[in-house]
Amino acid sequence: MTSRRLSNDTVQSLPASVAVPAYDRVAIAPGIVHLGVGAFHRAHQAAYVDDCLAAGETGWGIIGVSLRSPDTRDALTPQDGLYTLAVRGSDGEALHIIGSIQSMLVAPEDPGAVLAALTDPRTRIVTLTITEKAYLRAADGSLDAAHPDIVHDLANPGSPKTAHGYLAESLARRRAAGTPPFTVLCCDNLPANGATLHRLLIGFAKLRDAHPAASGDAPLAGHIADEVAFPSSMVDRIVPATTDADRARIAVELGVEDAWPVMTEPFRQWVIEDTFPAGRPAWEKFGVTMVEDVRPFEDMKLRLLNGAHSGIAYLGLLSGHATVDRSFADPAIREFVDRLWAEAIPTLPGDAGLDTSAYTAELAERFSNTALAHRTAQIANDGSQKLPQRIVASAIERIQAGLVPEHLTLVIAAWIAACEARGKDLPEAHFTDPLDAALAALGEQPMLERVAAVFDLAGFASGRPERQTLIELVAAHRVHIRQGGIALALSALGIPKKTKLS
């Protein structure tokens, strides 16, 4: 393997088959601060921004911020922020060098530098991919005011730990300086993600306004409520975790080392509500759909793609399938996914012009992509945070319609079973969940009581009249899984084990 590193100095010497930034990176000014620079951001938003920069828009460079780990910064800074985006399809792989990330900051190391970037008048958009759990919601969906990091940020507004703390403090400083607020663009898989973050941040600001540490400061909650735009968005691209084998293969193809290339599929989608008072890139020129209301697109993606992904992951893990394509190729799981879609589709708005037949056909092709090797364990992470919008919401609406969510509730049961299988049939730390400690503390209980306790911990269907029906359905599935594994649970739904697709 070569010892040279991908960088501004080496990028022009790459093979002609590799696409490199088609613009002068030195001429680019920062306009976006992104919180949560992980593989998904680098495969999705950063790639779209790269397209805009190549088209001549010079004011939208990205300053990346990691709220926790320095790993991405440590990988990208020696490379001048450059990295390889490997687009892998069944017909081969195309390599693109992305140059839109200008610099990287690690929040715990230097909160002041992050706040300086957020308060810079050139920053007009702040995007976020911090994962569902980082929004620090209580079981009822409100801000978890008792979370230690929220408590810290209220007492120490100048050195925050959370996204809420950084957004609030920087918006307060911008207002004090007479700088217009930036637009906050959430790109995480939350229902009505912009409105959800807006509500959570107003809740944080109200606590901050009432805190002794804010004595004498102008109230912030009203400013955020009235003056800051929070457009909702829907994002979609499958991004498997990068392996050492991926790094080695990319290094050979480039002729230089890339410490953290990103693997992805050819498909990408971004739907955004077009509310940007401070301006935005011309994303629509590169396939982004700008709309007035993102909710129909969001619901379709959450319930059909993400819901199926969770089902494929948990049923696949319990069936011994390590990747999505292998799980989806299991005829019984394949039929289960079709039935899951059949349950979820009627819960989508019928007047929004959604083509669910074309969408699920496209999903089936994407799930079958053998080149991605998307690990089921990666998708399985943080199920307690993901299942409410992916599965539980659809199940509630089916019950309201007088229908039984048999297949939707099996996904919840499979999540519980997969959590319990770690350290037994699955490796101890095969995937993680914020509720791991609480789940482990439940001890032995009758199945119905145990499922009810899990619902309580996760806040599934909290306060809903449909909750007991969901618990009973999940408990019945969980009994089948305990007695005869996923095969028995599927058989109880009329899906026998098959050797080939019918």
From TrEMBL:
Keywords: NAD, Oxidoreductase
Domain Mannitol dehydrogenase N-terminal: 31-285
Any one GO MF annotation of this record: oxidoreductase activity, acting on the CH-OH group of donors, NAD or NADP as acceptor
GO biological process, one term: mannitol metabolic process
Keyword Oxidoreductase: yes
Residue stretches making up the Mannitol dehydrogenase C-terminal domain: 293-473
Cross-referenced SUPFAM superfamilies: 6-phosphogluconate dehydrogenase C-terminal domain-like (SSF48179), NAD(P)-binding Rossmann-fold domains (SSF51735)
Protein's name in the database: Mannitol dehydrogenase family protein
Organism of this sequence: Mesorhizobium neociceri
